[in-house]
Amino acid sequence: MSSLQEGEETPEIESGETELEALLDDLIVDRDDHENAPAFVIRPDTVQETLGRLKEEAGYDHLSLVTAEEYPDRYESIYHLKKFDDPTDEVSIVVPTDAENPVSESAEPVFRTADWHEREAYDLVGIDYDDHPDLRRILLPETWQGHPMGRDYDQNRPQMVPLREHANPLEDDHRSESDSDTMFVNIGPHHPATHGVLHLETTLDGEQVVDVEPDIGYLHRNEEQMAQQSTYRYQIMPYPDRWDYISAGLLNEWAYARAAEDLADIEVPEYAQIIRTMGAELCRIAAHMLAVGTFALDIYGDFTAIFMYAIRDREKAQNILEDLTGQRLMFNYFRLGGVVWDLPEPREEFFEKVRSFTEELPELLEEYHDLITGNEILQMRTVGTGVLPEEVAKNYGATGPVARGSGIDYDIRRDDPYGYYDELDWEVPVEDGCDNFSRLLVRMREVEESAKIIEQCVDLLEDWPEEERNIQANVPRTLRPDDDTEIYRTVEGAKGELGVYIRADGTEKPARFKIRSPCFSNLQTLPEMSNGEYIPDMIAALGSLDIVLGEVDR
Amino acid sequence: MILQSETPLPDTLANLLGLGGFGVAGEFVASFIAAFIVGNVMLAMTGVAGPWAKRKITAKFTDRIAANRIGPAGIGTIPADAVRLLAKELIVPEGADRPAWDIAPLIVAGSAMLGFAVIPMGSGIQVADPEVGLAYVFAVASIASLGMVMAGYASNNKYSMLGALRAVAQNLAYEIPLVITGVSVVLFTGSLRMSEIVAAQQETLISLGGVAIPSWFVFVNPFAFVLFLAANIAEVGRNPFDIPEAPTEIVAGFQTEYSSVYFVLLYLGEFLHIFLGGAITAVLFLGGAAGPGPESIGFLWFVVKIWAFFLFTQWLRSAAPRLRIDQLIEVGWKGMLELSFLNLVLTALIVGVVV
């Protein structure tokens, strides 16, 4: 499928490339094309100029990912740019920097989202960004020695630090001279509303939030390095389940599968694509059910009926997924080139189960609407609070339901089709309220759309001729993609645009494996949404972002 | 027709035990025994409500089973929970303001217990029946706010402090509508004495096909009842007005730092306040201990009424989202206060013209 798409797009990219070359004529040093996009090499002191031109004049308004890597002779930052209007129109900007003194200009003044991405690059790889407003470690503790993704990093060096040297992340009350009325509160890392180990450094003025700064990294496992130490064929696949572990497993697996399959030119059989599509949408329903349930929990303040109902109905999706994959949490169901096994026997019983779930879903959602969206107190709490304007959302690289709740009509499943999505009949729900309520509505409507997709998949699978049920393509036992090929591919995860960048070096393990976590970018918008609002609204905004710390921290 | 026994419980006990001859000492002993009985009855109800009934009720609302391990329907979890809670370590936060921190739970629990002293519970159970009964019960119930502020301030914790401030703001905003609405009932009865308020509701309001509807104030003035109920829920701090605790926002508000016995006392106090709220509602609007059957089972009807109120709070807990603090204050000062005064004026007109 993928090779087909690329074939179709080639002419368009060709013409676009000449225009881009003309636009960036004086800045381009070299070409270093990726499998997915043209890539231009520029000097490290022209980053803002280049990205600025691409954003303002060529319309590349989405900085999807910043990848950083150390080579023997240089450091390299790659800015993966896209258009919100057309995510297949991509361009990469490669910024090599000196090995001795890796300083590169920051992209933060052009794209706000670069803030955290560059902090991560500094933290893990060790590139310094000039002009960056706040270049600190983001995932690792302040006291960490060295940069773990760097080449000369000693993995055996103990990182134990005496207590007195350890920067206590829980800061004391600090009152500035000018503004003595504020109060500093640590919300988290263990707090009923943070949905995991998230720490919010919050400055309050009475009940109002003056400033909030998310402190992340408590769940950091360096999943990227784990993938780099594993082989393409089998060893990487179990890890994506552990990024967004709240039932979005298959969606994550697809992110890796799509990138690796396109890199190694593997064609997935149509039958397997349909199974993948169905499984992924079941995951999306389960993930959104939990998001709606916990959002209600944040607003209602107790484990109320709506939370339990959402969990009860999510359980049905989980049971189907368990039948399909044999697992409830860490599915490990996809394989490069297909899925690990066919639908469970007897098939009729399975189809019956899936159908009864999708058929009763509209009725269940009606009940949710009665309980949540129809409730006047909930409307008082959510309409007009946690506002994230469209332009701000784009600037921060927000994707998924967060972007669609801000009126951005952007869904990878439709705009950059993969799997079987472009053959099916469904819609992308968009709400332009930009507030907590819109994000809630988008998720609830997406559940309906997912159910529609699943029904169509079941119809297709039921009629599929028995002899053509091919669940896996022929894939060599050991995969060795060509040396120096790079690819960045994204899928629509439960929380937004989930991407994987892989650079192959001709061995059976990736030389660089980089994850684009939608939650990581989405969480950055929290201060925009909650500064100046009340504490409860900040909690509601956090709930409406629907972050999973496993994916934020990776 | 007066269902309520005119004799307060201490006098009945004094007669029964022959304490009358001992003068002041006898009176004191009799009052002490009466208070002991009433206190224990209410504590027992709280004991059933807190560790068991609350769980079971919420579970029914949310499609779960809840406690089911010990005894029939898990009722045996009550002693187990009591032992568990009392056996826990009491952790005193660094920098806690000591006497205040220790006294606060006692105030919260004690203020509710004091309120029950004047409640006519039917079957002759009423410890005292002073002339200013209604004013007294409102007064002691609102002492709890003081306990909350002390708990929040003395804990040396920012979440506690926020909770305490919220508690004060909320109670100020709702105490006034609550009392004003209560006063509209007094306009009918012409007395603050609890037994007389109950007595005034025993006449038949209207006879529908042979069924006599008593003149409970819930039927006479349903508008006041709804107002009173809402203000009462806010006063006892239950959903959707559980803002001083607000688990997802400020952890547990003023009780964040409390553990073990102190936590039990605070929790006990909250449940007692729910029951006291139910008792006041029953006395003011639901005819006190009145109900079908002989007068001697009045206490049963009274228990049914306060448990109905408890059930109502748990229903809200399962179904209603929490308001934001500024919205709550707005509803209190801009909505309920006006409505309660309107209700008072209307009631005064009706009482003046009709009665």
TrEMBL record, chain A:
<dbReference type="GO" id="GO:0051287">
    <property type="term" value="F:NAD binding"/>
</dbReference>
<feature type="region of interest" description="Disordered">
    <location>
        <begin position="1"/>
        <end position="22"/>
    </location>
</feature>
<dbReference type="InterPro" id="IPR037232">
    <property type="entry name" value="NADH_quin_OxRdtase_su_C/D-like"/>
</dbReference>
<keyword id="KW-0472">Membrane</keyword>
<keyword id="KW-1003">Cell membrane</keyword>
<keyword id="KW-0813">Transport</keyword>
<feature type="domain" description="NADH:ubiquinone oxidoreductase 30kDa subunit">
    <location>
        <begin position="41"/>
        <end position="157"/>
    </location>
</feature>
<keyword id="KW-0511">Multifunctional enzyme</keyword>
<dbReference type="GO" id="GO:0016651">
    <property type="term" value="F:oxidoreductase activity, acting on NAD(P)H"/>
</dbReference>
<dbReference type="InterPro" id="IPR001135">
    <property type="entry name" value="NADH_Q_OxRdtase_suD"/>
</dbReference>
<comment type="similarity">
    <text>In the C-terminal section; belongs to the complex I 49 kDa subunit family.</text>
</comment>
<dbReference type="GO" id="GO:0008137">
    <property type="term" value="F:NADH dehydrogenase (ubiquinone) activity"/>
</dbReference>
<protein>
    <submittedName>
        <fullName>NADH-quinone oxidoreductase subunit C/D</fullName>
    </submittedName>
</protein>
<dbReference type="GO" id="GO:0048038">
    <property type="term" value="F:quinone binding"/>
</dbReference>
<dbReference type="InterPro" id="IPR022885">
    <property type="entry name" value="NDH1_su_D/H"/>
</dbReference>
<dbReference type="Pfam" id="PF00329">
    <property type="entry name" value="Complex1_30kDa"/>
</dbReference>
<dbReference type="InterPro" id="IPR001268">
    <property type="entry name" value="NADH_UbQ_OxRdtase_30kDa_su"/>
</dbReference>
<dbReference type="InterPro" id="IPR020396">
    <property type="entry name" value="NADH_UbQ_OxRdtase_CS"/>
</dbReference>
<keyword id="KW-0520">NAD</keyword>
<dbReference type="GO" id="GO:0005886">
    <property type="term" value="C:plasma membrane"/>
</dbReference>
<dbReference type="Pfam" id="PF00346">
    <property type="entry name" value="Complex1_49kDa"/>
</dbReference>
<feature type="domain" description="NADH-quinone oxidoreductase subunit D">
    <location>
        <begin position="304"/>
        <end position="554"/>
    </location>
</feature>
TrEMBL record, chain B:
<keyword id="KW-1133">Transmembrane helix</keyword>
<feature type="transmembrane region" description="Helical">
    <location>
        <begin position="261"/>
        <end position="286"/>
    </location>
</feature>
<feature type="transmembrane region" description="Helical">
    <location>
        <begin position="204"/>
        <end position="231"/>
    </location>
</feature>
<dbReference type="Pfam" id="PF00146">
    <property type="entry name" value="NADHdh"/>
</dbReference>
<keyword id="KW-0472">Membrane</keyword>
<dbReference type="GO" id="GO:0016020">
    <property type="term" value="C:membrane"/>
</dbReference>
<feature type="transmembrane region" description="Helical">
    <location>
        <begin position="298"/>
        <end position="316"/>
    </location>
</feature>
<dbReference type="GO" id="GO:0003954">
    <property type="term" value="F:NADH dehydrogenase activity"/>
</dbReference>
<protein>
    <submittedName>
        <fullName>NADH-quinone oxidoreductase subunit H</fullName>
    </submittedName>
</protein>
<dbReference type="GO" id="GO:0009060">
    <property type="term" value="P:aerobic respiration"/>
</dbReference>
<feature type="transmembrane region" description="Helical">
    <location>
        <begin position="134"/>
        <end position="154"/>
    </location>
</feature>
<feature type="transmembrane region" description="Helical">
    <location>
        <begin position="336"/>
        <end position="354"/>
    </location>
</feature>
<keyword id="KW-0812">Transmembrane</keyword>
<feature type="transmembrane region" description="Helical">
    <location>
        <begin position="103"/>
        <end position="122"/>
    </location>
</feature>
<dbReference type="InterPro" id="IPR001694">
    <property type="entry name" value="NADH_UbQ_OxRdtase_su1/FPO"/>
</dbReference>
<feature type="transmembrane region" description="Helical">
    <location>
        <begin position="174"/>
        <end position="192"/>
    </location>
</feature>
